[in-house]
Amino acid sequence: MCGIIGVVGRQGSHVNQLIYDGLTVLQHRGQDAAGIMTDYQGKFRLRKSNGLVSDIFYSRHMLRLQGSTGIGHVRYPTAGSSSRSEAQPFYVNSPYGLSLAHNGNLSNAEELRVNLRDVHMRHMNTNSDSELLLNSLAVELYSRTNSLDIGGEQHIDVESLFGAVSGVHNSAKGGYACVSIISGYGLLAFRDPNGIRPLIFGKKELDGETEWIVASESVAITALGFEIVRDVAPGEAVFISNSGHLFTRQCSENVLHSPCIFEHVYFARPDSVMDGIPVYQARLAQGKKLAERLLESWPDHDIDCVIPVPDSGRISALQMANTLCVPYREGFVKNRYVGRTFIMPGQALREKSVRRKLNAIEQEFRGKNVLLVDDSIVRGTTSAKIIEMAREVGANKVYFASAAPPVRHPNVYGIDMPAVNEFIADGRTIDEISKKIGCDKLFYQTLEDLIEATNIGETKLTRFDTSCFDGDYVTGDITAEYLQQLDDARNDDAKQDNQEEDDVIDMHNDDE
Fold first, then answer.
1. Is position 2 annotated as part of the catalytic site?
2. Which tens digits make up the pLDDT trace of 141-158?
């Protein structure tokens, strides 16, 4: 999972600060690396490295990132490398000068890699599927573009541009949302035909000119003072010329809108709206549904209070407390300077990190029967440690609720989840999971309820990508062999090996 942003400002303006500010708003989508690329006087200007946005860009970098068109990226690594060399955006010099930043994951990456190498003689510098998308777009654009000589200036044929995106849709499979700069021409953005990964665009009128923005989440648009136009449709491409003219086209004949439901469970900021669904309201509805199910099975419960696991469990917990008619309490204080634990390689490191990330408020637990609420349970490492912490500070009984169903299948479209045998729900019943994490009772959301609670937009969606819960992969190309390869790449041993290799690579990279 990553965050992307693209901005086309007024001619003669510089969009570096807008992109920087947008990336800080999207920082929750990736804390591993960040990058900004601008197009200035026909040349790309780039700064990218590992770390948080605030740690990467200094005044000297911002002064150099001139240009009225630019893109940005924050990385949340999935299977594979997290080396600085794989930070985005990427670029190639032909045709025109082409750059790209990408959120998602390709499920046919190896097939694309072989085709680009053997048929089109394209060299890949990294293992990133984002570089594959960039080179696929370059190949398609080169084969279709007709440069038209108009008034002594060359212009890209927009029909050929959209044809190139169609070609990418035909060759690439998986979940992807992309922003791309065509040097000297403008900003191109497009979304996979299933709309798995989110993408939205907006505009702002200023001094008689229109500025445009494209981003992963609506909050990056509104926070920067732009007004939302709409979501980019599945399979659609949006091209904004450097002069501020907007062109859109549906570039896929096979569209099946299936946005990732895990965005609404965990990843998206609660103040975002995705595909017409307000994330905050969806999480409230998820909590209400879960509480209603709890009351059906346990009407005479003895819960004294509801306590959320910060931060993404907070909204569902609030609504659960209201529905159950019991007090809502904040029982944990979070150290915000510790990273997310479910992507850390190594069980010992994760367990140690949970203790550093959360601290219990004893007065909220001692002698009480508490219901802890989290957005989901993946490995169960965090859940078990939190339950242990609650007991240590005197909780009488500890119940646990997950706003999402059991995670039993890998996500192949851009969310880094562990190998299947590292899922706590793998091969276990709910009672067995409850015993494993050490709680007195465990409550899971049903998938049916999760879908109903989330599907609250004005236009009802016909389906979501729920593959990590039910193993139903919308792209239709996920085989047992592919899942095994993914499993081999995502287990703790593989991640440790990748980290050691990345450390060696980064020792040889000069940092600006």
1. yes
2. 998 875 544 444 556 789
Share of the chain above pLDDT 70, in %: 89
Q: Which helix (H) or strand (E) holds 24?
A: helix 16-25
Question: Shortest CA distance to 87 belongs to which of 34, 21, 28, 30?
Answer: 34
Q: Identify whether the C-beta of residue 274 lies closer than 8 Å to the C-beta of residue 259.
A: yes
**Exactly one of 2, 251, 439, 468 is catalytic; which is it?**
2
* Residues written for the chain: 512
> pLDDT tens-digit profile of 186-236?
999 999 999 999 999 999 998 889 999 999 999 999 999 999 999 999 999
- Three-class DSSP labels, 433-492: HHHHHCCCEEEECCHHHHHHHHCCCCCCCCCCECHHHHCCCCCCCCCHHHHHHHHHHHCH
User: What is the side-by-side strand order in the sheet with 98-106?
Assistant: 90-92, 98-106, 174-182, 186-191, 236-241, 246-250
- 284-461 — its CATH code? 3.40.50.2020
Question: Which of 1.20.1600.10, 2.30.110.10, 3.40.50.1370, 3.60.20.10 would CATH assign to domain 3-257?
Answer: 3.60.20.10
